[in-house]
Amino acid sequence: MCGIMGYAGGKRAAEIIIEGLSRQEYRGYDSAGIALRCEDEIVSAKIVGRVSELARKVKELPKKCAESTSGIGHTRWATHGGVTETNAHPHESADGSVVLVHNGIVENSREIKSRLESEGVKFITQTDTEAACQLLAALYKKTRGDALESMKTLTAELRGAFALVILFRDRPGEIWCARRGSPLVAARDGSACYCASDPTALLAYTRDLFFLEEGEMARLSPEQCEFFGFGGEKKRKKTIRLNWDSVMADKGRHDHFMRKEIGEQPDVLRLTIDTHTILAEVAMDKSLALPPGLMKRVRRVQLVACGTSNYAALVARDIMESFDNSLDVSAEIASEYRYRNVAGGDDTLAVFVSQSGETADTLAAARIARARGTHCVAVTNVRGSTLDREIDRAVLSLAGPEVGVAATKTFMGQISILAMLSMALLKDRGTLSAGDEARLIGGLRSIPALQQSIIERENEIKTLAEKYAGSGGFFFIGRRECVPLTMEGALKLKEIAYLPSEAYAAGEMKHGPIAMLDEKLTVVALVPDTDLREKTLSNVEECRARNAPILLLVSEGDEAARAHATDIFFVPRTEPELFPFVAVIPLQLFAYHVARALGRDIDMPRNLAKSVTVE
After folding, report:
1. Is 195 annotated as catalytic?
2. pLDDT digits (tens, 9 = 90+) for 241-275
3. The domain spanning residue 98 has which CATH number?
4. Which of 218, 258, 562, 583 is 20 to 30 A from 111 in CA distance terms?
């Protein structure tokens, strides 16, 4: 959540910080602020609203601020304290010596505040962040201006997760940073240093980035980027190069990033196939480097993730189960996995899936699994992220930067990588035949063209979306390989259209949900032409008998299905296990056009953040 941007160099800081915050808007926020070193003082501006409004307010600052060459900025997603200008970051200490922005939660903020208030310090906000700011000011005074010593004590006293970026009034040209739990990345370009919550904010300057580790601090200045441990010891860090560029984080000719990213999915799948196959064989040995014979010993595979990543894990679970019923495969919600007594150890392989590689619950779950001796693999979209660095075997999904809050192309990247991973593991166990391997890879190679054919029929989906945008709610139903898609389809409508949307295995409708059906609740049913077609259509008929409008997604050529539908959309045929790769495209476009019809803020839906970095 929250976006941080810092700059220390020779150019106009305000412009760079505003641009950096704009590139992180998708993380979700309700207010924004900036602090600039203007000659011998630090001047702040804060607003409730968008970064564009902050940019206008910055122009009203004293003229000397336009020439400022260092500063910090922040977009806040409220956790402690209401959405007000006072609670917006940056925060300034009572004595004016420290200005600070923060991403995360200071868990012991109340006791810090109580202690400082007893010493006469006056607090003006309702936030946990101000406790960190006021404490640092007190420590800075106590150490007579020793920034490193003050930061050492601060990080030792704070409990919880934090990414802190700090200006000291009497240290011109310096930015101090500290990271525990919440992500922070730094970069150097010529005679300037930058820091941000997200790599996309820095791509316009460099692709060579320093990712701060757990328990690391940094001092950034025009001369250098210096790194320290929380104990004050100096650390040497190497940059990690991201194979992204700033154009990939630009929406180009499209009205929304989400629409642009939906259209990029054929390329994501094509790149994944080309990277991880040789002719008709899966080739992931270099990426995985699993111990010899491991998969023959493994009895359990746990796929652990949150949100859309969890639905991608469900797709992979179904592929694995299709070819090996001797393997116990489960898709686990990370926020539950970490609090359950889940089996682990040498006979277990856990795969942790996170788009950002910074999801707090997924990281915590991975650390628990490693402590139990479980073999771990990470699947993430961000090279250098915490998950990538902490898990020895990490496989990168090849989606590139995704700016829209609602995941689209990263879902495609995940199911593509997880399909390859599933085949590699099954092949190592000897349960995937050469014939099935060639069939699945051949099917995957054909899908990008099928996806593009759906995108070219966007107007059909737009017409359906506009027709059903006034529905009182939606039920998404399907069976087996379609169940994860029902969840993803329902989630997309919730995320960007704010409509009540539920997902059910079709056979569960009679066990309660069917009581809700009437002419105001639309049923979206996924019915591919598989062995479960007739059973699913029977469930559809039960819904139709309750007067619910029926929108069917069926295999191309299944004209007989029209008799069961109010409206129908034909999905190109593919291998049964791969149906999610084609059917997810119309579901994404449907949600997108419903949200457009309702006038929603599609790329930045209310209350949501791209990366959930706090529990």
Report:
1. no
2. 887 665 555 666 788 989 999 999 999 999 899 88
3. 3.60.20.10
4. 218
Do 507 and 432 fall into the same domain?
no
- pLDDT tens-place string over residues 316-350: 999 999 999 899 999 999 999 989 989 899 999 99
Q: CA–CA separation, 111 vs 596, rounded Å?
A: 46
Residues 171 and 380: their CA atoms lie apart, in Å, by 38
Q: Residue 575 domain-assigned?
A: yes
Q: Which of 2, 177, 193, 195 is catalytic?
A: 2
Least confident of 22-36, 113-127, 217-231: 22-36
The number of distinct structural domains making up the chain is 3
Q: Quick one: which of 122, 137, 227 has its CA closest to 184?
A: 227
Q: Show Cβ contacts of residue 436 under 8 Å, excluding neighbours closer than 6 positions.
A: 323
Same domain, 40 and 155: yes
Task: Verify whether residue 610 is a known catalytic residue.
Answer: yes
Which residue among 46, 152, 427, 610 is the active-site one?
Answer: 610
Distance CA 169, CA 182 (A): 25
**33 and 89 in contact (C-beta within 8 Å)?**
yes
* Dihedral, CA of residue 87, residue 91, residue 93 and residue 95, to nearest 10: -100
Six-digit token pair at 203?
Answer: 């791509």
State the burial class of residue 482 (Cβ atoms within 10 Å of its Cβ: 0-12, 13-18, 19+).
Answer: buried
Same domain membership, residue 231 and residue 266: no
DSSP codes joined into one string, 529-561: SSTTHHHHHHHHHHHHTTT--EEEEEETT-GGG
In a domain, 121, yes or no: yes
Same-domain pairing of 135 and 268: no
The CATH number of the domain where 309 resides is what?
Answer: 3.40.50.10490
Output the DSSP codes for 214-274: TTEEEEE-SS-EEEEETTS-EE----EE-S--GGGGS-TTSS-HHHHHHHTHHHHHHHHHH
**Cα angle value 550/554/556 (rounded, 5°):** 140
105 in a domain, yes or no?
Answer: yes
Domain that holds residue 411: 260-452
